[in-house]
Design brief:
The structure is a single chain. This protein is elongated. It is of the alpha+beta class. The protein binds zinc ion. The site of zinc ion has 7 residues, from α1. Zinc ion binds next to α1.
């Protein structure tokens, strides 16, 4: 028996395949359904052991140079439980500076 997993994002549809994660923990490949069957577009989404996600779509690559927000592919895969949600942000560490000893 064969089965397939589809993700529908707005007017776009993607066939989703799990890939060998390689260096990451989780890796998905999204094959975009194109009207022209000869045109192939696919994106690879990886999640590293620390929960950080990356996609090779133009939107993610562009945003990484700016705010570093996830693309729609990462957001959708997370919504459907195919990627772990990011760990809640911890409050920034308070750096304590030890008090100086008075000079005798
Ligand atoms: Zn993407």
């Amino acid at each position: 028996m064969t089965s397939s997993l589809w993700l529908h994002l707005g007017s776009n549809s993607y066939r989703v395949e799990r890939q060998d994660p390689g260096a990451g923990l989780v890796c998905w490949r999204l094959f975009k359904l194109m009207e022209d069957e000869d045109e192939k577009v696919d994106y690879i989404v990886r999640q590293a052991w620390d929960g950080a996600c990356a996609c090779d779509c133009p939107a993610f690559v562009f945003r990484q140079t700016g705010a570093g927000r996830p693309c729609k592919h990462i957001t959708a895969l997370r919504e459907h439980g195919l990627l772990d949600n990011p760990a809640p942000e911890l409050p920034p560490a308070v750096e304590t500076i030890p008090a100086l000893e008075p000079i005798p």
